[in-house]
Amino acid sequence: MEQKVSIPCGDITLSGLFDEGLGKKGVVITHPHPLYGGNMYNPVVETIARAYREKGYAALRFDFRGTGASTGRYDDGEGEQEDVAAALAWMQDRGIGPVALSGYSFGAWVIALCAAGLAGVDHVILVAPPVIFVSFDDVTSIPQLAGVVVGEADDLAPPGPVGALVPGWNKTARLSVVQGADHMFWGFDRELQARIEEMIG
C-alpha cells in the first residue's frame, strides 16, 4: 500500500507516495514536465512503479517542486535535480538500498543530468527521454544506466535519435522499442511494464 510522505529538500518540502515493498531494494521515480500537466499520478509513472513493485522494490514517486502539494516553484531542470537527490537521500535514510532511479520524459531528462553525480544509485532506467524537446548535450555519461525504453511512434523520443545517444551514455545499456507506442504509451502499459521488468532483471 502506498502512503503519502513528505520529503525535505533544502527549504522546500516535496510530496510523495511511498510503497515499502518486500525487501531492502528501492526505486525513486520521476514524472513528466510539470508545466504540461505532468505529476506523480501520470499513468506511465504508475506503470514504472508497478513494474518495480512486482520485482519486490520499495517505490517512491514524488511531485517535483511547485507541482501538486510540493512547495517551491519550477526550476527548468536545475532545482529538480536537487529534488531527485533529496528523494534518494530520503530512501537511504530509511535503510533502503540499493536504490534505483527511473524517470519518464522530463523526469528521465532530470535523472540523466544528475545520476552520474549521485552516490549509491544501483541502476537507472529511462522511459522516453525527450531528446527532441530538451537538450541532452550536458549528459556525457550515465554510468548506472541499465536501459532505455521508447515508443516506436514517439515524436519526442524517437528510437533513432535516442538510440544514437545511448552508447555514449553507457555502452552496456539496452534500448528497447515498443512497437506502435507513442510518447504517452496509451494502450501499451502492459508491454511497457514488461520491458521495464526485463531491464530490472
Write a brief structural summary.
By secondary structure, this protein is an alpha/beta fold. The protein has helices at 43-54, 78-93, 106-114, 159-169, 189-200, and strands at residues 3-9, 12-19, 26-30, 58-62, 99-104, 121-127, 145-151, 174-178. The chain has one domain: Rossmann fold (3-Layer(aba) Sandwich).
Low-confidence spans: none
Shape: globular
Rg, please? 15 Å
CATH superfamily membership, which one? Alpha/Beta hydrolase fold, catalytic domain
Q: Biggest sheet: strands, sense, closure? A: 8 strands, mixed
Alpha-beta classification? alpha/beta
Query: Order of helices and strands, N to C?
Result: EEEHEHEHEEHEH
Return the average pLDDT rounded to an integer: 97
Helical percentage: 25-40%
Please give the domain count: 1
Query: What's the count of strands?
Result: 8
Q: What is the terminal separation in angstroms?
A: 23 Å
Descriptive notes:
With 201 residues, this protein is an alpha/beta fold. It is 30% helix and 25% strand. The chain has five helices and eight strands, in the order βββαβαβαββαβα. The protein has helices at 43-54, 78-93, 106-114, 159-169, 189-200, and strands spanning 3-9, 12-19, 26-30, 58-62, 99-104, 121-127, 145-151, 174-178. The chain has an eight-stranded mixed β-sheet with strand order 1-2-4-3-5-6-7-8, sandwiched between helices. The radius of gyration is 15 Å and the shape is globular. The two termini are 23 Å apart.
